[in-house]
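Contributing new complexes? Match this layout with flavin-adenine dinucleotide.
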Amino acid sequence: MYEGAGQVGGRCRSFIDSKLGIEIDNGNHIILSANSNFLKMCNLIGSENTLNFLGSTYNFFDCKNKKTWNVKIGENKFPLWIFNKNSRIPETRLIDYISIFKLLSCNKKMTVQEVIGEKNNLYKNFWEPLTLGILNTQCKEASAQLLKNVVKKTFLKGGKYSGIFQPKKSWDKTLINPMLNFLREKKIIPKYNSLLQKITI
Ligand SMILES: Cc1cc2nc3c(=O)[nH]c(=O)nc-3n(C[C@H](O)[C@H](O)[C@H](O)COP(=O)(O)OP(=O)(O)OC[C@H]3O[C@@H](n4cnc5c(N)ncnc54)[C@H](O)[C@@H]3O)c2cc1C
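Output block (do not edit by hand):
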């Protein structure tokens, strides 16, 4: 096993920050329950007990205005909560939720901003944080097609597919160390700082 970096884990790993003196997980990773491959892998390496299941309520916090709100994804596939004024995202009207259908019929080349439009009241309080969280990209550059794929496989399939998993302690304890142990049992030792450049068959 070749690993180009000095450690395994790639973008999803933990490290000790020498200034803060604490273990930090790289990126604020959450895994959605629709990701059955991830759950199968945790099962294979025996780390499923190191996960916390946080349900399918998404909490938002607006740092600027110190406002909080949440979106509860119920068992229904259709987001019925949009018809209840009290369950809707602050400052949004029923008509703003048409943006869900706009996203579903997006053109392959369009960005999230082009599809939803900045003037939509859901943009700032829902689509923008969601796009950043899922695609790690600003709406004006993020592919609407990629976001659509995620929304279709998760939120639009209901709470069963939109549940949130996070590690109880850190990704090192959930993924990296159990996987290294699993590989060690199979006598596979990673070769660090070794960039694979060619495969000859
Ligand atoms: C800030 C941030 C937050 C994120 N949040 C989430 C989230 O909440 N939920 C979620 O599901 N995803 C999230 N992601 C995305 C997630 O981290 C990645 O999709 C995932 O880690 C990809 O895993 P990977 O193993 O395919 O690739 P990587 O993690 O990129 O790992 C690739 C590995 O291969 C090595 N490598 C590359 N080329 C070679 C070579 N030629 N030879 C040898 N080794 C090589 C690299 O050194 C690296 O270790 C986030 C990402 C970031 C950066």
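Reviewers usually confirm one structural detail per submission. For this one: The pocket of flavin-adenine dinucleotide is lined by residues 2-5, 10-12, 27, 29-31, 136, 195-196 (CB under 6 Å).
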